Amino acid sequence: MKRGLDCAAHKHDSLVPLEDHHVHPLGYHGPDVKANKVRICANAHSDAHYMLELMLKKKAFDAREYGGGVRAIALRGYAAVMAYGESLVSE
Questions:
Q1: pTM score, two decimals?
Q2: Which helix (H) or strand (E) holds 83?
Q3: For residue 91, is pLDDT > 80?
Q4: Which residues, 6 or more positions from 45, have their beta carbon under 8 angstroms from its beta carbon?
Q5: What is the DSSP string of 33-79?
Q6: Run of H or E residues at 19
Q7: How far is CA 81 from the centre of its chain?
Q8: d(C-alpha 38, C-alpha 41), whole Å
């Protein structure tokens, strides 16, 4: 696990563990390519997955509980999953 300041979701003043996050999750048929990955801290990684699951399950939640960077990443993931689903319907 790498450490750094370059979290795509949060600003950090000290080194934090960074993880690669698949914006379009592998579990939802996302590709394992560099263009589908962002480097984020562990907290953002957990929050992005949790928020995406809430959106996909159509559960009510307050998006303001998540930072703007986490919201943006989760929304990109949601759009990718929905586009993939639409592509299956149109085949």
A1: 0.90
A2: helix 68-89
A3: no
A4: 19, 21
A5: SGGGEEEEEHHHHHHHHHHHHHHHTT----GGGS-HHHHHHHHHHHH
A6: strand 16-22
A7: 11
A8: 10
User: What percent of the chain has a predicted confidence (pLDDT) above 90?
Assistant: 84
- Residue matched to tokens 């696990």: 1
Three-state DSSP class for residue 13: coil
Q: Give tens-digit pLDDT for 55-85.
A: 999 998 888 899 999 999 999 999 999 999 9
Phi, psi of 34 (to 5 degrees): -60, -40
The tokens for 66 are 């998540």
Beta-carbon neighbour count of residue 79 at 10 Å?
A: 12
Question: Higher model confidence: residue 19 or residue 64?
Answer: 19
Residue 38 bridge partners (DSSP)? 21
